[in-house]
């Protein structure tokens, strides 16, 4: 007898050459794994402790958010529509951000993603040791990195200055990252795992980068890093090393299949090609880079050479949501408009980027990203009776995949199963009190806002003027 | 005693120079109008038949969808990611589309918009006489146009041919439009009104266009028309008249404040400037034009000269959703990425385009688009306790407006009041059975799909190949 049987599903398995669509399909789950997938009429594992008749709704792999910073989610919406998002607006609030705010805010961020169908969170932040508890509690699959850099919080850097790098800071952060690894890597049969997260090539010495790489090899994990993420990074790299980020990383042996290169905002076509050809993955954050920088990163270039392209929602201050349906939509439309061609980034391709190709990018394709026997049971049920998914047609042409990408907004996700466990059912979280989490987060946010007031007053920013004018 | 008192609101009135934000605010409603707006502590009309304590949630004007075709909503998702969206994919389904499908599909489309906070629908379709019943039933505010053109359905046109125009078709469609006007214009104290809807300058003779204009003058209504909506239109205009659409329209006296010019996809900067300077409004459909054509229309050019810029969700096959939160998001990010500048199309400006500036564009600013005494009571309540709106901060800097535009997806809309009537409460429609509407629509859609099969089989399109490959 299996634990869960999902039947009468419009299955989108993401297996095989196409999307592996099976109308009138079924999936069975035992413990944390998928045990059988196929047409209901040929199904063998029909006895289950829990049977879910989904009445032709869509059943598909959970979405993978390949780059998210839940620890600053609590600053959502505080710096928008400005140059220099960080210095121009977010800074007073970052200064006032405490551990409580990071951890409480992270919880709401995770809930937000989960309710929109995200089952795997590549969470990149600190204090990750504490944030990991949130993932453990809500039941999410998490791939965690505790940010490593050599940036001292105390130093006041003028624009244009080379960042002073402080090796003692680097060593402390490395210790945190190792502690995280020791404590959480492999938790619950690998539902939570860790990797190394050097913040960027401009924020640490070559020596530390190489040390990080050795550790990653030892633990057999990937390296999750911002690469060519902005003109400031390129400026720092040229000033310090006389070369751009990607050439530098190639020379020190960083461009290989261990690397998850996030953003590539400033990468040229040639540089992007090199990253892809060396076997590294690209993580594209369409919403965040579009809203913060007005840029569409070179994902079209990357995917000419590699399918290891994943999507990430990045951080709520900036993006401003952590919703993979939003990322799919933005990715499709922004890339179409970049080259004035409606054919590029079609729905099926973008859906792959949020599922099976993301799993490949993370090196986790044997475990997640599709619905297949033996894989971990990370599955979402999407309500095709929602107005935004109406109508649901199977023949002569199916309209479900385009509607998932272009129309659904995440609120159609009805049920979320992670690692064989139902963590959301009929839109109610089963393991966490959503209301309580938001209430506690709101209190923490108000405390941050209060502390930020003294920094904010002295800034006289574009945003504070807009606030005075009543525009925000 | 008033009918409804909304209290403890974070009011975004859209009145005055800024956005007219009033924390701890209240609004009262009697019959179909707003009677008082202000801070709760100074409020006079405190006795009400129904009191809604919104506990600091956002209360704002209902959103205005300035261009929507609900009559083809039932074909959602059937033609995506191709050149020639209509001929390349939608055609077999359009051929099979019957009146039942149009009307039943329209109902679900309206429900979709309404649940995402749209209170005014500028619905442009046919048979509008029947679709009007849907708006009457659900309680939406509607500005209706029955499409007028001289295109014969029977003629098979080869690509590159000049469309044959048939004056008898034009006269029949004009009769329908006049019937609609006589029957519905002014219904329920103007909750439903009508205007003239010539489909485009390429689809009818100059004589018919001028006749339409005379009728619009007689009824004192605007003219809602697609202008420079694609390269095909420009090609037809140049072939027939030796000039582009906007020059032609200017010469025949069509560019004035009666005109709502939809799309302007192909308009040059100079042409756009002329449209704005002549006093016409622009309706921007960011999602639909982005997905179908990969183009960002020249809204930035338009708004240099005029504030009469509104947003429209266009038709579900193409866009694919009729959700104004989606339109706001797309409008901001696409325009930022068009010019690589995060400062353009800031949140507050986009929010205006969906409310007060849309009302100006429609010439309805005395009635809708903001919360002010004497205006019609079209109001939505947005749940700021949703994860996507978390946290909600008022000081030292408010983050609510950016989060409404960049993060909310419409599912945060809790309550919708139109013309003083609560049409949705706690996400349940009060006047329509949503489930039943979707069930009936789904049946109608399946009938269309069945009839489309014979046309579809002969087409051998990109999409039918993708269908065979299991990609859609």
TrEMBL record, chains A, B:
Gene3D superfamilies: Metal-dependent hydrolases, Urease, subunit C, domain 1. One of its GO terms (molecular function) is hydrolase activity, acting on carbon-nitrogen (but not peptide) bonds. CDD domains: ATZ_TRZ_like. The keyword Hydrolase applies. Residues 58-423 form the Amidohydrolase-related domain. PANTHER family: AMIDOHYDROLASE-RELATED DOMAIN-CONTAINING PROTEIN, AMINOHYDROLASE SSNA-RELATED. This is Amidohydrolase. The lineage of its organism: Bacteria, Bacillati, Bacillota, Clostridia, Eubacteriales.
């Amino acid at each position: 007898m299996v634990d869960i049987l999902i039947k009468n599903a419009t299955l989108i398995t993401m297996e095989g050459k196409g999307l592996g669509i099976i109308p009138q399909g079924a999936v069975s789950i035992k413990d944390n794994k998928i045990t059988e997938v196929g047409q209901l009429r040929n199904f063998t594992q029909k006895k289950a402790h829990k049977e879910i008749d989904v009445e032709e709704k869509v059943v598909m792999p959970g979405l993978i958010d390949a780059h998210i910073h839940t620890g600053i989610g609590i600053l959502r919406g505080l710096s928008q529509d400005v140059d220099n998002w960080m210095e121009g607006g977010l800074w007073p609030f970052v200064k006032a951000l405490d551990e409580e705010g990071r951890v409480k805010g992270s919880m709401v961020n995770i809930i937000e993603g989960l309710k929109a169908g995200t089952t795997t969170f590549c969470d990149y932040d600190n204090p990750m040791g504490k944030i990991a508890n949130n993932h453990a509690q809500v039941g999410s699959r998490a791939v965690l990195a505790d940010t490593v850099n050599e940036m001292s919080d105390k130093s006041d850097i003028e624009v244009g200055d080379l960042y002073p790098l402080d090796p003692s800071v680097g060593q402390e952060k490395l210790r945190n990252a190792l502690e995280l690894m020791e404590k959480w890597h492999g938790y619950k049969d690998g539902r939570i795992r860790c990797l190394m997260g050097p913040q960027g090539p401009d924020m640490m010495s070559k020596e530390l980068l190489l040390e990080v790489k050795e550790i990653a090899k030892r633990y057999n994990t990937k390296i999750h890093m911002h690469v060519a993420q902005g003109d400031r990074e390129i400026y720092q790299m040229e000033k310090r090393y006389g070369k751009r980020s990607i050439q530098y990383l190639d020379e020190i042996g960083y461009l290989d299949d261990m690397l998850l290169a996030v953003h590539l905002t400033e990468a040229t076509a040639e540089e992007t090609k090199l990253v892809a050809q060396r076997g590294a993955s690209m993580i594209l954050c369409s919403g965040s880079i579009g809203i913060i920088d007005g840029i569409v990163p070179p994902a079209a270039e990357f995917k000419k050479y590699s399918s290891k392209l994943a999507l990430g929602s990045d951080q709520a201050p900036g993006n401003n949501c952590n919703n993979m349906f939003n990322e799919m939509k933005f990715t499709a439309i922004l890339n179409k408009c970049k080259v004035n061609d409606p054919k590029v980034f079609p729905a099926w391709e973008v859906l792959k980027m949020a599922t099976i190709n993301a799993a490949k990018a993370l090196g986790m394709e044997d475990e997640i990203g599709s619905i297949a026997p033996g894989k971990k049971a990370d599955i979402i049920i999407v309500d095709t009776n929602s107005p935004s998914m109406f109508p649901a047609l199977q023949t002569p042409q199916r309209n479900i995949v385009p509607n998932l990408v272009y129309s659904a907004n995440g609120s159609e996700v009805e049920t979320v199963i992670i690692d064989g466990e139902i963590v959301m059912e009929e839109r109610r979280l089963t393991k966490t009190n959503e209301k309580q989490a938001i209430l506690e987060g709101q209190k923490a946010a108000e405390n941050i806002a209060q502390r930020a007031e003294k920094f904010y007053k002295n800034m006289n920013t574009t945003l504070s003027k807009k606030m005075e004018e009543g525009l925000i």
